[in-house]
Design goal:
This protein is 31% helix and 20% strand. The chain is α/β, with parallel strands linked by helices. It comes from Streptomyces albus.
């Protein structure tokens, strides 16, 4: 068999044990690891067309996989101003003011990554930005990607002048006189104004997606579990052109109101795709987010909100889960609040009971799991439900002293059980780590570092939030290698460095297990390999 890639002088790290393999070289052919051995033996396999790389002692791990990201949707949202660096109203106003001066008359201003903590104890509304955005149509995506702050001019152009009624959890937030404040909650409300703005061209969407994916490959990612409801045509086009640098497993959305025909279409789509992407699963939402008051909690938040599910009738969600389970389709459900997580687990338990002992039963997942009580923890392992978590959300959007918006809304008791990665892991749950990009940084080393140190990424000198919930270095690595493969049923050919396994590889300048957590995010990624071909190569190699 022709050998496509040879890696020499490597330290091959086994994420199952945390030890280095005895071999120091690797050969890949036809997208798989073809051989492991010493430098001389593996070099002898190289032919005229083989790419040979001397790694000079660099560390090779199985390719890092993001367990939850939105490349298509994120490439749409993450355009315009990156507002994630704004920490107070003064900085936000200054940033927006510079952009307004650059805009042509009538041009829309786009921004993303806005943290509600910028508004301090005050409400999130457009009024504090009025001096800057006067007459400017502006769409400012909140960091959670579930809410948006829009200017009065944008509301005017969209014809939104009061409250609206939706078929799913969503709200045009209004003051006591029924006038919109500028805050829109959940996608149905956001779309009212988004559709009034100039729409990007298909070519522009494709280019932004390709750029985003190349950046992910350069950060060491070889794959991702995609939670996007659209854009499959763009993935197919990139794949056909040989421009898809990640292996993607896509779960299209199932929203409230999905009828029998639409559900059948979701089932029909399963296992379709291309060489490097495949539809495998369905994404659902059980609630929104804590920060905007749309999470589903067992007790109200400090404002008396967060008491309702995203599905107007949660029983409809349970019925959908049962039907998808019977069809052998795995599901991934966004569930942030404790009531939402409990309802998902209850629904999965009922679906399993209705089909006991099924040999090909699909594996279901809960996404986010930001706060859960003790009696929920053990149910993940018992039901075989994957715990998909994003530790950098805790790092970057909450504070150790609970003065942040998320913690204030929940109160001390629930804020003290934030992102229980350690407890879920110890309870036997299969924990998969991800970024939820564009909500947080997609760099996998940042995600792994956050799982270990639980400190704000921009200021690692600040105290950690819930250090007792930190994972070990090995567990963090497993959360982005072995565990994603197990979660998708690919453990027999992915997530390990073994002959016959996929040649999806990440090469780092040093051992991620011995690199201090606070330094891990800056560890150089020297080479990323997908399907046996480099998608990123540092000039030093």
């Amino acid at each position: 068999m022709p050998v496509d890639l040879v890696l020499l002088s490597a330290r091959l790290l086994d994420p199952a044990t945390g030890a280095f393999l005895p071999e120091c070289a690797l050969a890949a052919a036809d997208g798989r690891i073809h051989a492991l051995g010493d430098d001389a033996g593996i070099r002898a396999l190289a032919g005229a067309g083989t790419t040979v790389v001397d790694l000079k002692g660099a560390v090779v791990t199985p390719g890092l996989v993001d367990g939850h990201l939105h490349p298509v949707h994120g490439a749409e949202l993450a355009r315009g101003l990156d507002l994630s660096g704004c920490t107070d109203l003064g900085t936000l106003r200054e940033t927006l003011s510079r952009e307004v001066r650059r805009l042509a008359p009538g041009e829309w201003l786009h921004g993303w990554g806005l943290d509600p903590n910028v508004f301090g104890d005050g409400p999130v509304e457009a009024a504090p930005l009025a001096p800057v955005l006067d007459g400017v149509p502006a769409l400012l995506q909140m960091f959670d990607a579930h809410s948006m702050l829009v200017s009065p001019r944008a509301l005017e152009l969209a014809g939104v002048d009061g409250p609206r009624t939706f078929d799913q959890a969503a709200e045009v937030v209004c003051d006591t006189e029924g006038r919109p404040t500028g805050l829109l909650l959940e996608s149905a409300a956001c779309h009212l104004v988004e559709r009034a703005a100039p729409q990007p061209t298909r070519a522009g969407r494709r280019d932004r997606l390709a750029t985003a994916l190349r950046g992910m490959a350069a950060s060491g990612l070889t794959g991702g579990h995609v939670m996007d409801g659209e854009g499959l045509d763009l993935l197919a086009e990139l794949d056909a052109a040989g421009e898809l640098p990640l292996r993607l497993r896509v779960a299209p959305w199932c929203q409230p109101g999905t009828d029998a025909d639409a559900l059948h279409e979701l089932i029909r789509q399963q296992h379709t795709g291309g060489r490097l992407w495949q539809v495998a699963g369905v994404k659902l939402f059980m609630d929104g987010t804590v920060d905007n008051g749309t999470a589903w909690l067992e007790r109200p938040d400090c404002h008396g909100g967060s008491t309702h599910a995203f599905w107007p009738d949660p029983a409809d969600y349970s019925r959908i889960i049962a039907e998808l389970h019977r069809a052998g389709v795995p599901t991934a459900t966004h569930a942030i609040g404790d009531a939402a997580v409990r309802h998902v687990l209850d629904s999965v338990e009922k679906a399993l009971a209705a089909r006991p002992g099924a040999a090909a039963a699909p594996r279901h997942r809960v996404e986010h799991i930001e706060t859960v009580p003790d009696d929920t923890l053990g149910r993940f392992a018992w039901l075989g439900v994957v715990a998909s978590m994003q530790p950098t959300h805790c790092c970057d959007f909450t504070r150790a002293d609970h003065t942040d918006n998320w913690s204030r809304r929940l109160g001390e008791e629930r804020a003290a059980r934030a992102w229980r990665c350690r407890d879920l892991w110890d309870s036997g749950a299969l924990v998969v780590l991800g970024s939820d990009w564009p909500v947080a940084d997609h760099r996998p080393l940042t995600v792994m570092a956050g799982a270990r140190h639980r400190r704000p990424t921009r200021d690692l000198s600040r105290p950690p939030h819930g250090p007792d919930q930190a994972l070990t270095a090995l567990e963090a690595l497993q959360g982005m290698t072995v565990n994603p493969a197990l979660a998708t049923g690919d453990g027999h050919h992915a997530g390990r460095l073994a002959v016959g396994h996929r040649a999806d590889l990440t090469v780092l300048a040093d051992n991620p297990l011995t690199t201090p957590a606070t330094e891990l995010a800056e560890l150089p990624v020297l080479l990323t390999v997908l399907d046996g071909r480099p998608t990123h190569r540092d000039p030093a190699l």
